[in-house]
Amino acid sequence: MARCRFIDAEKASEGNPAGHSVAFLCRVLGVPRSTYYAHRASRPARTARERAEEVLVGEIRVLHAGSRGAYGVPRIHAALRRAGRVVNSKKIERLMRKHRIVGITRRRRRGLTRQAKRAVFALDLIGRDFTAPRPGMRLVGDMTELSTLEGKLYLATCIDLATREVVGWAMAEHHRAELPVAALRMAAGRGGLEQGCVMHTDRGSEYTSDEFRSEIRKLHMRQSMGRVGSCYDNAAAESWFAILKAEIGTTVWETREAARADVFRYVEVEYNRSRLRRHPDYGYVTPLETRSLLRQNLVPAA
């Protein structure tokens, strides 16, 4: 209460012998003396609360910095709970607003999709249903370009729809068909893909190529495609690149090698193993934790 603080500052004391009596100040300011003395009595608890909030703000800043500034209130709240910190989300929201700690808002990106002149298209086996009951059943893939001072670098990914884990990825100075093929081979090499696993992409020329379709058949997978120019038909794959570019915090790297190293660290260390995502059944968990939890649920009881 501002008037109570004013009385504290202006009352007579050893440090302020010229001050006024508490009774006089309360009468002039219209503050009951009982209110003032209650304010004084609550000072230790108030000081302790303020110090506790300072500690909490420090923890929030550490988590926020650890996410490259990406985490907003929901994931900061989830990360604190995982660390054993029981705190109300509204309190976190208030403190983050007060200290101007904000998460990253993703922007829509421009895609690389170019339809081949003599393309062979596959049916859409996903139908904008970007879910899967178990790992290795449905993958989505896409490509994006990254800017460096040495020139463009291209990234292709394969994402498991059950876990949202990046199970396959590859980078090159070109975006020919061999790039998404390399990402697909990594996904298959990690194991766990079902027979007939769906690989869904857009209709870019790299994905309609003979090389990519041949690899799909070799791996006993099924190819699926959205419509050309429709970002919603491959939204899960495209949104991952928006997350990457928002959270990695770099728009132009000095070298291609620096970009490769940064993307590797983000995918394999930060995203797959550390980034929290809300799962409808398990709450906030990482992609690797989601895979483990789903596999446990799929194991028959002894």
Automatic annotation (TrEMBL):
What the entry lists under PROSITE patterns is as follows: INTEGRASE
Q: Which residues form the Integrase catalytic domain?
A: 131-295
Sorted alphabetically, which InterPro entries does this protein's record hold? Answer: HTH-like_dom, Integrase_cat-core, RNaseH-like_sf, RNaseH_sf, Transpos_IS3, Transposase_IS3/IS150/IS904
Q: Which SUPFAM superfamilies match?
A: Ribonuclease H-like
Its biological function? Involved in the transposition of the insertion sequence.
Protein name, per record: IS3 family transposase
- Its source organism is Streptomyces actuosus
Q: Organism classification, top ranks?
A: Bacteria, Bacillati, Actinomycetota, Actinomycetes, Kitasatosporales
